[in-house]
Specification:
Methane Monooxygenase Hydroxylase, Chain G, domain 1; disordered C terminus
């Protein structure tokens, strides 16, 4: 991936700028997750962080469009030699953008102010810390292209996704007279989707183009 990027023309839309844009998307995604999850779990006033959250999401969307335009321009100028890598990068920026979307979903749950069962709140807080830590790692793994680090990330993230999936199912099956279980099920679901899209990004380090999203699809097949 990076060998191909380095061959791109220099200038205002250089490979370095393109990579920097994608890295900023990953950083912004982690920020959105931290802010949204803390609002849901710690009871922060949603109005106090809404403007920041939406502004960050808009920045992610701008970065996605910038990267996609740059890839299209490169391929149309220099031919199909980098098509596979271009398709990978298109997929990666879409995953990064989707992290932001699910963070908004988490925030919207916080806006409902329905609350969560206390044991669920404690468990989600643990999962939140783990997901945030992995999101911070994703940027460095993507840049270093370390297969060893990528495989360790994938194993841990896959465990988190499975735990969230299992808890979401439990909440769906639970008697829910006050709506708290439904809120909990959606919370687990959105946490799972955030880490699953991060998984898709890191699989690009160890998987060929035709197997991108493999881990995500495997998770979906268990539902």
């Amino acid at each position: 991936m990076f060998d191909w990027l380095k061959r791109m023309q220099s200038g205002m839309s250089s490979a370095e700028e393109l990579v920097s844009s994608f890295e900023q998307m990953l950083e912004d995604g982690r920020h959105m997750f931290d802010v949204a999850a803390n609002t849901l779990l710690a009871g922060t006033d949603p109005e106090a962080i809404k403007e920041d959250l939406w502004a960050t999401d808009k920045r992610i969307n701008r970065m996605e469009r910038r990267v996609r335009r740059r890839v299209v321009t490169h391929l149309s100028t220099f031919g199909p030699g980098g098509t596979a890598n271009g398709l990978v990068l298109m997929s990666l920026v879409k995953d990064a953008e989707r992290i932001g979307d699910y963070c908004k979903n988490i925030f919207q749950l916080a806006e409902l102010k329905r609350g969560l069962p206390e044991e669920v709140r404690q468990n989600l807080n643990d999962e939140k810390d783990s997901i945030s830590r992995l999101l911070a790692k994703a940027r460095n793994i993507y840049k270093s292209e370390s297969e060893e680090d990528a495989r360790a990330f994938i194993a841990e993230a896959d465990d988190i996704a499975q735990r969230c999936d299992s808890q979401a199912i439990k909440m769906v099956l639970r008697d829910d007279q006050d709506g708290l279980s439904a809120n909990a099920a959606l919370s687990y679901r959105y946490f799972k989707r955030v880490i699953s899209h991060a998984l898709n990004i890191i699989t690009s380090v160890v998987m060929p183009v035709d197997q991108l999203d493999y881990y995500d699809e495997d998770l979906e097949s268990r539902e």
